[in-house]
Amino acid sequence: QVQLVESGGGLVQPGGSLRLSCAASGSISAINAMSWYRQAPGKERELVATIVRTNGVYYAEYADSAKGRFAISRDTAKSLLYLQMNNLKPEDTAVYYCKAENTWGQGTQVTVSS
Fold first, then answer.
1. In whole angstroms, what is the distance from residue 111 CA to residue 95 CA?
2. Tell me: the pLDDT tens digits for 42-76?
3. 81-98 confidence digits (pLDDT tens)
4. Cα 95 to Cα 71: distance, rounded to the nearest angstrom
5. What phi and psi, each to the nearest 5 degrees, are found at residue 19?
6. Which residues are bridge partners to 24 per DSSP?
7. What is the C-alpha separation between 49 and 38, in angstroms, rounded?
8. Which residue, among 11, 53, 37, has the nearest Cα to 96 in the 3D structure?
9. Is there a contact between 22 and 80 (Cβ–Cβ < 8 Å)?
10. Cα 39 to the chain's mean position, in Å?
11. 3-state secondary structure string, the chain?
C-alpha cells in the first residue's frame, strides 16, 4: 500500500493559481482511480476531482465548484497526481487531500485571500 504526500499549497490572492502535487511512495500503475478532496473549517470533507482509468483511457470528473477552473492529472511513470487550480476564490480555502484506493495523504493547506 502506497503512502501519499501532498505539496504545493499556500497563500494566493483571489484569481490566482496553484498546482498541487501528490507523491506516492510506490508505483501507482495498478491504481485505477485517484482523487482530490478538500475540507474547509467547520465543513465536511468533499470530493473535488477524480481521475479514473477505464480500459486504458483516463477520465476526469469534477465537483460543480471545480468545473472549468481545476484540472486533475497524473503522471503514472513518476507516481504523481496533480491538481491545477486556476481562478481561485476565497471559498476554495481548505486543506486539500489526495486519495488513492483507501489511502489518504496528510493534506496541504490552500488559503485564498487578499
1. 8
2. 999 999 999 999 999 999 999 999 999 999 999 99
3. 999 999 999 999 999 999
4. 17
5. -120, 120
6. 4
7. 10
8. 37
9. yes
10. 12
11. CCCEEEECCEEECCCCCEEEEEEECCCCCCCCEEEEEEECCCCCCEEEEEEEEECCEEEEEECCCCCCCEEEEEEHHHCEEEEEECCCCHHHCEEEEEEECCEECCCEEEEECC
Q: What is the mean pLDDT of residues 18-45?
A: 97
Contacts with 44 (C-beta within 8 Å, 6 or more apart), sequence order: none
Distance CA 101, CA 79 (A): 14
| Amino acid identity for residue 64 in this structure | D
Calpha distance 60→5 (Å, rounded): 21
Task: Assess contact for 39 and 46: CB atoms under 8 A.
Answer: yes
Q: Is residue 1 pLDDT above 90, yes or no?
A: no
Question: How far is Cα 6 from Cα 24, in angstroms, rounded to an integer?
Answer: 9
Q: How far is it, in rounded angstroms, from Cα 83 to Cα 54?
A: 20
